[in-house]
Amino acid sequence: MNYTEEISKKLNNLLIKNYDAEKGYLNAIDNIEDNRLKMFFKRRVSERSAFADELRTEILRYGEFPENDGSIKGVVHRNWATLKSAMSSNNEETILEETIRGEKASLEEYNNILKDRNLPPSIDALLYKHKNAIQASINTEKSYKEMVS
């Protein structure tokens, strides 16, 4: 595999994670009542959609083809989160636990790719920007979780 294909493969993995996160937040919006959380999750949907757009642009810039959808693992996680929240007495806390878990998985994926010190500077900067936003999201979600628990 050449360098261009290798970078595109890594970016496609992140793209899939962003599709999964976007769908996870849409699922969360449908399963909560709190308007503050709905607005927070809507902002995360927009943010993850923007991340996906940026990643697609980079993949295309390298002459490769971006993925078009999320993963089976993401579908399973969303279904599990829906089932778990349906059986929970504190729906919002349960949903926040699952969104935090999903964001931590995304953060781990970003960290793994950022270990590659041979990334072009523009991609490196883009991935750090995404990573920092995801970490901020986790911190905010933890604060919301403390408020609803």
Automatic annotation (TrEMBL):
Gene3D superfamilies (alphabetical): 1.20.1260.10
Annotated signal sequence range: none
Domain DUF2383: 7-116
Source domain of life: Bacteria
Coiled-coil regions listed in the entry: none
Name of a matching Pfam family: DUF2383
Protein name: PA2169 family four-helix-bundle protein
Organism: Algibacter miyuki
